[in-house]
Design a protein that fits this description.
The protein is an all-alpha fold and 420 residues long. It has helices at residues 33-41, 60-67, 75-79, 86-106, 116-131, 139-163, 169-192, 194-204, 209-244, 256-273, 279-305, 310-331, 337-350, 353-358, 363-368, 372-382, 387-419; strands at 48-49, 56-57, 245-246, 249-250.
Length: 420
């Protein structure tokens, strides 16, 4: 300024700690994924930032200046009250929010959780970064960084943990565990960045933050793993069926409750990938379950007909149907119930109906001995199978009535002739 002139009181529109030059157009991912994992689990807070296409180190000097802005409030709270750069703001979000969240997950929820104030401060910082005047409005970049941070954790932590497990039940258990971790991370992340859902996502007709999280898990974890996962689940269901019913008596399944809990948790992963249309569940799990169910009961039906009479066979069929109802309630989607019962009836009752009805102690025997209990069971089992199945039973009943009527008529005529 000129000598004697008053100093200008006009405030600069640039932030006090401008580090925008530290951001290149593109940036590289962390060279060593293990470094990210260690940073996530260590107690040391290392300033990290992610540019629109990756990650890079935060300028430690600018971050230190931000941390010393006000002694009365937390760094995040102080940053939420003034203009901040993307690098500075994301560094605070990452260090104070995301890294802490990762540590909580890695410690299985043990340790210090988020306080209400910390939650509010992080939400306020995101709000501030979305409402600063250009060129410091970072709404679109925060949306991108949100998705990248979720994907990066899945690739460097969740995927590694699953791949390290041998194929089979241990792999499925680890995948279910990582899905639960992902759900917790997604819930907190969506809370921190909730302002994006309220305005930016709606106005831009973009996927919600929840959809971004689900799509990331589906792309990184589920799609590469569901083949092995489905095969393992089918094997567990087969073991469940083989052990559950022996010689018409319900048998205790060793670890059955634990296995069914695993099946339920795994099924929920399939459903969550497409909860509205259930396409993922139906195409990748339900179809395989139905096909395997048909093979299982076709084999069972042939074996039972060789050693059981009609009443025993029908009683076993009822036990199997009841077991499948319980099975669906325990670990499959309710929409599968009618489909799986149709498969069981088809292979146990319909395909073998003629052999069942006309074998020794079949329907004719039941009618002759007035075995109402088994006849009632017969009708209960075949009524849902359709009109054609009932017609076969009706034909036998007609033959029985015709036979009995002929016998009565013959007896009557004999007695009448003898008395004449």
């Amino acid at each position: 300024s000129k000598p004697g002139s008053r100093p200008s009181t006009k405030r600069s529109t640039r932030p006090e700690h401008d580090t925008s030059e530290a951001f290149p157009a593109t940036s590289e991912l962390l060279a060593d994924p293990r470094a990210y994992f260690l940073a996530s689990t260590a107690r040391v807070q290392t300033p990290i930032s992610m540019a629109a296409h990756g990650y890079q180190r935060v300028n430690e000097e600018s971050t230190a200046q931000a941390l010393s802005y006000s002694p009365e409030a937390s760094p995040v709270a102080r940053a939420s009250r003034r203009t901040v750069t993307l690098e500075e703001g994301w560094g605070l979000i990452y260090n104070k929010g995301i890294l802490k969240l990762h540590r909580i997950i890695q410690d299985d929820g043990v340790g210090r959780q988020f306080t209400s104030k910390e939650h509010i401060d992080l939400y306020s910082l995101v709000y501030n970064m979305c409402n600063q005047k250009a060129p410091y409005c970072y709404t679109d970049k925060l949306y991108t960084l949100f998705g990248q941070s979720v994907t990066h954790y899945l690739k460097t932590v969740s995927q590694v943990a699953i791949v390290e497990k041998p194929n089979g039940e241990l792999m499925v258990r680890e995948l279910v565990k990582q899905w639960k971790h992902h759900c917790l991370i997604s819930r907190w992340m969506c809370n921190f960045f909730g302002y994006l859902n309220r305005f930016y996502v709606r106005r831009g007709n973009l996927p919600t933050l929840e959809s971004v999280c689900t799509n990331a898990f589906r792309t990184v974890i589920f799609n590469p793993m569901f083949g092995k996962m489905t095969s393992t689940l089918i094997d567990i269901i087969l073991q469940d069926r083989e052990q559950e019913c022996k010689d018409g008596k319900m048998a205790d399944i060793k670890g059955g409750g634990d296995k069914r809990s695993l099946l339920k948790a795994a099924t929920e992963v399939y459903i969550a990938m497409d909860p509205e249309a259930l396409t993922v569940y139906r195409e990748n799990l339900e179809q395989q379950v139905l096909a395997d169910t048909g093979v299982f009961y076709a084999t069972k039906s042939a074996a039972r007909l060789g050693r059981l009479d009609a009443p025993q066979f029908l009683q076993m069929a009822q036990i199997d149907l009841d077991a499948e109802v319980t099975r669906v309630k325990d670990f499959l989607h309710p929409s599968t119930l009618d489909k799986i019962l149709a498969v069981v009836r088809d292979h146990l009752l319909i395909h073998r109906q003629s052999e069942i009805l006309r074998r020794p102690r079949g329907v004719m025997h039941l009618l002759e001995h007035d075995d109402i209990k088994v006849l009632s069971l017969l009708y209960t089992l075949y009524a849902p199978c359709g009109h054609a199945s009932l017609v076969q039973i009706a034909d036998i009943v007609r033959d029985f009535i015709t036979k009995k009527g002929s016998e009565i008529l013959h007896t009557f005529r004999s007695e009448d002739g003898g008395g004449g």
